[in-house]
Each structure stands twice: as C-alpha cells, then as structure tokens.
C-alpha cells in the first residue's frame, strides 16, 4: 500500500518563522558584540556601513515580529535565509573578507536550509552562498589594527580558507540534509508501524464489542419475540394484523440467531489471549496461503501469547518471503530450555549481500532482485515494521541467505513469549442491567 505522505522523498516541512527570527536575533547579538570588541581592540573598519547592515537585520526581525509567529512557507523560508546569507557576506566584505575569523558563520543559513527545505532549494541557496563567498574573497576590504598595519592573510592562506568554506558549504548542507531525511523517514515509518498495530488491535477488540452487544441485546429481543407471539395468538380474528405480528416475531428470532453467532465468535476473540504456536503461525500465514508459493509450517511448540503485534509482524515477514519465493516458503519452529526460535525460509534469489547489514531499515526499497509477485505494492516498510514490533516483544531478528533463498530467524526468550494454558482467565467483566 502506497501513501505519498509517508514517502521519504517528501521534503521536510518548512521551519517556523519564530525559529528563523530567534536565530537571527542570536546572530545580531553576536555581530554587535564583535563590533564592540573590535573597537575596543582598536581595529579599524567602516563602522557606519557595518551598523547599517546590522540595523537592516534588526528591522527585518521587528517587521516579522509584527505578524503572527506561524510556520512559514518554503518560499518565504528561502527569502529569509537568502537575506541572512547576503547580510553576513556583506559584513564579511566590510570587515576583512576571508581574513575575518567569523567568516565560518556564513555557512549557518545554508545548513538551516538543508534541514528544512527540499534538495532544489538547498542547492540553489548553497550555490548563492558559494558565489558570495567568492566575491568576498576578491573584493573584501582589509582590516587595520591600531597602528595602521593591515591585517590580511597570505595569498596561500586566503586560497586555503576559500577552499575550506567551499567544502564546508557542500559538507554541512549535504550532511544536514541527509540526516534530516533519514530522521524523517524513520519517524514516518514508526508512524506507519503504530497505525498498523492500532488496526490489528482494533480488529481484535471488535470481537469483544460484538460479544457484549449480543449479550446486552439478547433480553430485549427475547421480550419482543414473546410479545409478538402473544399478539399473534390474540389476533386470530384479524389475519392482516396477525401476519404482521408473525413477521415481527420471525425478525426477532432472526436477529437473535445472528447475534448469537456473532457473539460466539466475539467471545472466542475476547478470551483467546493464548494459542498453540502452530495456530499463531497459521493465523499469520493465512492471508498469503493462496498467493502462489506453497507455505509449509513445521511447528510443534508451546502455547504462546496471541499478541496482534506479533501476528502482524510475522505476517509481514511471511509476505516478504512469499513475494520473492520461487515455489515454496517453509516456516519452522524450535524450542529449547530457554528460547523459542522461528525461521522463515524461501527458495527465491535471497537478499543482495550488500544490503544484508541494512535489512530492517525503513524504506529499503532495493529488495531482492527479480520481479515482485503480482498483487504486491509496498513502501519498503514491511521488514521495518516487523523488526520494530518483534523487538518490542523481546525477540531478536537475524537476516541471512541460505536454503537456498532468504532466511529470517526470530528468537524469543521463552519466558517472554510462552504462556500457561492452565492459568485462570481472570474475573468476568461486570455488566449492569
């Protein structure tokens, strides 16, 4: 199932205007502090133009502060960050160019852009930053100390500083963009996992709701049936009304039968908190039993927790095996004194060796080679969801090749998964009539 809102290609949402304004206030405070310290040290530079540039940043912040501090659009974020790059670059040009020890701060806007904007906007802002740095290196005004001596870097150091800033633009922007994309992908995948688990739990609890409804409605339906039968007996002289009473009685009987059937299934779901290992594996494999490859279960084990999260996770692992199997999937289980081990093997092409270390990461779309089985449409989240849910249940997973296709091994400590079928079910729920 594909969902564009959970795609890793979706760009990060633009940052809030409040964040941009707050970052600019910090920059303004630092710039003013640098001006004061430089004057105290007797360093000569064009003070009025420098203060004018700082005042422009203050004016920008004050203007933005007049409106509501809401999340801005991507276009407005680009405008704000472009303003910051130009303002910082102009300050550098007036205060020594690349010889300014604070020249590294010109990398801040493009780094912020990489965490909140898409690739195209980040590349555009990065290119603008590199152009401005190059112009500053060529046309920056030198600084002078209190004796009038020019403070300047040697040409080779200027070239080295320029190169370092160029590399910094690419490195910081690329690194920040990659980390943000991975965090966003993981967050989206965890959200999809929670949704899948919530769905399984709702399906499980639905049976209990049906059972309760059947129990609660049994008495009113019995009353309707009784009254309808008595009315039918008393309306012998009015056949048309007697037929209506008989139809009402028959409908009440039909409703009672339907609710009795549903309630029986609901009670089974409500009370089935444990099941034999083979039953749980059959439940997990059932949706994929008729999709092509034969699914063979070889499992004789203890009663285990019938947890919807565990069933859903095993179902995802079995689906992945069926999707790429040539003709057969084998599910085996072994139990020793301390562990329960379930292995799922297929006879497909196996995992690409280069991806084995990354199996279970979200959006790992480079699955095993070959065409996917008809009817499959995924987001690359199946193995991630399965791994997350099973690890939360106390299991450890292993992914490998052999036999001849892929092998997934799930191992639980026995005390985390096994249950005692002879244990009491607990108190029955109390109902008010």
Can you walk me through this structure?
The two termini are 44 Å apart. With 433 residues, this protein is an alpha+beta fold. The strands form three sheets. It has a five-stranded mixed β-sheet with strand order 4-6-7-9-8. A two-stranded antiparallel ribbon has the order 1-2. A hairpin with a 3-residue loop joins strand 6 (328-335) and strand 7 (339-346). Helix 8 (277-285) packs across helix 9 (308-324). The protein is built from eleven helices and nine strands. The protein has three domains: 4-193, no CATH class; 195-271, no CATH class; 275-417, Heat Shock Protein 90 (2-Layer Sandwich), CATH 3.30.565. The relative contact order is 0.08. It catalyses: ATP + protein L-histidine = ADP + protein N-phospho-L-histidine. Its EC number is 2.7.13.3. Its main location: membrane. One of its GO terms (molecular function) is kinase activity. It holds the Pfam family HATPase_c.
């Amino acid at each position: 199932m594909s969902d564009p809102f959970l795609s890793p290609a979706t760009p990060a949402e633009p940052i809030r205007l409040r964040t941009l304004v707050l970052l600019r206030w910090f920059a303004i405070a630092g710039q003013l502090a640098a001006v004061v310290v430089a004057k105290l040290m007797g360093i000569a530079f064009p003070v009025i133009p420098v203060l004018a540039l700082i005042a422009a940043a203050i004016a920008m912040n004050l203007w933005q502060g007049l409106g509501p501090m809401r999340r801005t659009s991507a276009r407005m974020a680009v405008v704000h960050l472009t303003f910051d790059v130009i303002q910082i670059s102009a300050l550098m040009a007036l205060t020594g160019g690349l010889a300014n020890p604070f020249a590294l701060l010109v990398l801040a806007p493009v780094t912020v852009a990489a965490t909140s904007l898409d690739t195209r906007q980040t590349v555009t802002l990065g290119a603008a930053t590199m152009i401005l740095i190059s112009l500053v290196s060529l046309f920056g005004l030198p600084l002078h100390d209190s004796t009038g001596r020019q403070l300047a870097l040697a040409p080779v150091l200027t070239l080295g500083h320029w190169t370092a800033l160029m590399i910094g633009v690419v490195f910081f922007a690329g690194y920040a963009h990659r980390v943000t994309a991975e965090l966003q992908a993981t967050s989206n995948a965890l959200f999809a996992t929670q949704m899948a688990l919530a769905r399984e739990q709702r399906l499980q609890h639905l049976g209990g709701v049906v059972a309760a409804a059947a129990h609660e409605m049994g008495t009113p339906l019995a009353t309707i049936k009784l009254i309808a039968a008595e009315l039918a007996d008393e309306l012998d002289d009015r056949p048309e009304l007697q037929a209506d009473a008989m139809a009402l009685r028959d409908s009440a009987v039909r409703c009672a039968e339907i609710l009795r059937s549903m309630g029986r299934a609901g009670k089974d779901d409500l009370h089935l908190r444990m099941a034999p290992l083979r039953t749980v594996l059959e439940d997990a494999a059932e949706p994929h039993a008729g999709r092509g490859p034969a699914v063979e279960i070889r499992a004789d084990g203890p009663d285990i927790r019938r947890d919807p999260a565990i069933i859903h996770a095993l179902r995802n692992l079995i689906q992945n095996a069926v999707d790429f199997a040539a003709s057969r999937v084998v599910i085996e289980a072994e139990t020793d004194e301390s562990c329960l081990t379930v292995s799922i093997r297929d006879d497909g092409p196996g995992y690409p060796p280069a991806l084995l270390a990354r199996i279970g990461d979200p959006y790992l779309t480079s699955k095993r080679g070959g065409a996917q089985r008809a009817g499959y449409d995924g987001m690359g989240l199946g193995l991630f969801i399965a791994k997350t849910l099973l690890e939360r249940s106390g299991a450890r997973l292993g992914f490998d090749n052999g036999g001849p296709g892929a092998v997934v091994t799930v191992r639980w400590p026995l005390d985390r998964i096994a249950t005692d079928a002879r244990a009491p079910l607990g108190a029955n729920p109390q109902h008010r009539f």
